[in-house]
Write a structure and sequence with these properties.
alpha/beta; Rossmann fold; formyl-coa transferase, domain 3; 6-stranded parallel β-sheet; 17 helices; 13% strand
Amino acid sequence: MTRGTRPQLPPHTPRPVGAPNALEGIKVVDFSIIMAGPFCTQTLGDLGAEIIKIERPGVGDDIRNIPPFVDHDSGVSTFLISCNRNKKSFTLDLSKPGAREVALDLIADADIVVENFTSRVMKQYGLDYETLAERFPRLIYLSVSGWGRTGSLAHAGGLDPVVSAECGVAALNGDPEFPPNVSTVPWVDLTTALNGTIAVLAALHARERLGRGQHIDMAMYDTGMSDLSYIGARYLGTGEGPERFGRFRPEAVPSGEYLCRDGRRIYIYTFNDKQFANAMKILGRPEVADDPNYAKRLARYANSEKIIALFGDLVGKLDADDLSKQLADAGVPNGVMRMPSEAYTSAFAAERNMCVSIPHPVTGTTFNVGSPFQRMSLTPAVDPVAAPALGQHTVELLAGIGYDAARIDTLVEQGIVTREASR
């Protein structure tokens, strides 16, 4: 099998010189691993917070060892790169005597602690919220977990696929003619991360008014239930469904995925009557928009099979890119169905500074998917720094909190921390 070659990407376009950082001066001690916690803290780092990523010596975050690796043989996990930029790596073996004191020294001037273990883990090290809050009352403590800190599953582990299955999200993925499937993109992980970010920012604001921090119990299960949104509301409001919609959406007819003449597929979303009329004009059948059977939303619902079939026939006579441009110019929401390989290397991604190349200490350069916050007019996202090597900043951070060389040497000898950075 021929191995792929990573794409050549344009360099990152730096933020304006001198632009302030939204979260300047905010320090986060991040014990989280894998996806939801690290994606949350990456977002906080994008906004200018200092993120100290606590990792096990010699092992690090579990995802460091998950292939594929950049350029196949570098040992630098693409998974790690995707959710750990703008962080400092600090190795700490919490199982060692004396490690807790180091953790407390790191937390002493921190604003936020993030962890995403089961409920017993941080408590066994004396680093749970109740213990820390007595010493650091202004601390904001985010616990991300599969099932939350209360209820019968509080001690159970939960990752995106199993939580997606349990809360009903997975059951709605896929074509209705086939069994359901878990999404390839871990949406519950990602939306939980974003909810965690929102909660932390709200807690920071509340602390300014109330003078104290708080504990945030952010469960993936709660997020998944919330993510069902208006789809779940169909059942709650009517007792019916919801079913898997597959290629077509019932709330906007005719909308869905259609095959074009050139063999490519396009997704068209005619949400209102005007968009439908504009689409029919571009497709060469403007009179259909005046037909009483199709002119209004509810009429199209009642005749959905006929209009979807007609729409599909007309779309099939045009090429995807040409049709997409015409629809966009007419205000009709649409998008050509692209693989990530096409999307990441598209001209539009380059225009938006969304898929670029940045320096990396091991591979020379690596990819970066841009922060969605890089276009804030006053405090845009910071320029991206690639995910750190394991333990890269340990000595630097210890010195920064007042540890002298002799004490650092002792910690290294005791196996509590490691000095050398590794991939």
